[in-house]
Here is the input.
Amino acid sequence: MQTTADVVIIGGGIMGASTAYHLARKGCKNVVLLETGEFLGLGSTGLNAGGVRYQFATAVNIELSKLSIAMMERFAAEMDQEVGLRRCGYLFMLDQEADLAQFRANVALQNAHGVASRIVDAGEIASLAPEVDLTGIIGGSWCSLDGLVDPNGLLQGYVSNARRLGATLRTNMSATGIDVDDNRVRRVVTSAGTIETQTVVIAAGPWSAQVGALAGVELPIQPIRRQIAVTDEIPGLRPDFPFVIDFSQALYFHREGRGILTGMSNRDEPPGFNTSVDDDWRLHHIERAMERLPLLADAGIAAEWAGLYEVTPDDQPILGRLPQMEGLLVCAGFSGHGLMHGPAAGLLMAEEILDGRATTIDIDPLRWGRFESGVSAGEYNVV
Ligand SMILES: Cc1cc2nc3c(=O)[nH]c(=O)nc-3n(C[C@H](O)[C@H](O)[C@H](O)COP(=O)(O)OP(=O)(O)OC[C@H]3O[C@@H](n4cnc5c(N)ncnc54)[C@H](O)[C@@H]3O)c2cc1C
Here is the structure.
């Protein structure tokens, strides 16, 4: 058991693993990552839908996507690990004039950041996704370069390369305390002993508020249950079926294997750590899904599960140093779109720790301090 570390990372999902890798790659090798679970990636990182998109409503999220997706494109060559990046396109379908107006503004912002998204009318939606019932749909937005990535490949690439570069990633080991003194981090208490350190990164996804509390810090990150179902094979399903989102119902579909993965967010779900499948919501979801995508009527359910979004008041992550506690940093609260931003987030955290400040992207809009001055408009494209 290592008793000192330059950096201790708490949490072994995509954020922790990416941060460990980027620190080691920049030469900081005395890094210890702690993961409660028996394996890495058993939290949200192992339970998500694998979606990757540029279509966001805030400049900083669009930039996080641009940086992350470029890193995914180079991943196999640089990391010796396939991540299965598949550009099937994301089609947002809208049935409210107010949403269409907001999406026009979002697309204009995306275009200004060099993203080739566009507004589409119902006729074009019908040709992009003829399988979908368009009742009530008045328009939408489309980006052909959005798509899917393999969450496990992404995580394993960071895990194996972090280890190869000298970082220590421990499973079955929880952070149970963060000792502070004079507003400064001194050590992390774990289930297997104590590690002296000056720098701690909270990367505990939906559990991040609990980990923050170990240091007496309040983090506004709530766990919210989200469910997914995957069908068995659907004969004739085309390989390039896009990622389709019925925005007002928070209902989505994409091709998974030879079937369809579908999710639907319950916007009334209370915060909590329950990850059992909600049978009532399951029924509601499947009925709505069959209405929108009638080919589901003949499909059987092959798998279903629930995981946790890690939600902040403005649906944007909290990144960087915490002003109230020297040596304490956060990389959490990605509000349901963190897998795709994991590559960029880890790099930015390594810069913040080793260079004093993240520079590749300006993360000021994502710093904890924004909540002190009242929550401003957050991310709109949340599913
Ligand atoms: C149903 C669903 C669908 C999603 N779809 C998408 C999508 O399509 N695209 C996308 O980009 N994102 C998606 N997401 C969101 C994405 O999965 C998360 O944003 C991302 O995985 C967060 O990663 P993380 O590393 O912050 O958290 P996690 O993967 O949850 O990792 C945190 C880890 O911290 C560990 N931990 C907690 N407390 C401690 C402690 N005290 N000591 C040690 N370890 C601790 C946990 O065991 C856990 O493994 C989805 C999420 C869900 C639930």
Observations:
- The helical segments are 14-25, 59-79, 97-112, 122-128, 151-164, 208-214, 279-292, 342-354.
